[in-house]
Request: fold
Amino acid sequence: MDDATARTRLQNMLGDLERSIAVLRGDPVAVRERSAADAGADLTDADRTRAMLDVATRQRNAVLSALKRLDEGSYGRCLDCGRTVPEGRLEARPEASRCVQCQAKRERRR
Reply:
């Protein structure tokens, strides 16, 4: 993927993520009389929202890092081994910072 295409895709992703984060951080629903079941459902919804916000924030940070690598001229190189990240991986995940092998090693360590 050429740098211009990568930059466009990453900027579009960033815009989408920032809109999603803004929605997830939106004002809480006004408190009203509720049953205990409603209160439990609200906690579950809050946990789900917090988890989605965490994922969106991590992905936003990955996109910002990818844009920085584009600016520095290191986009498409694995952060760990320095080899070229396969084109197909960048097509699927433009924010990818590692080749498949290094990403797999990293995930096994978790």
Q: What stands out?
A: Residues 28-33 have pLDDT under 50 and may be disordered. The CA atoms of residues 10 and 63 lie 6 Å apart. The helical segments are 3-24, 36-72, 87-92, 100-109. The two ends are 30 Å apart (CA to CA).
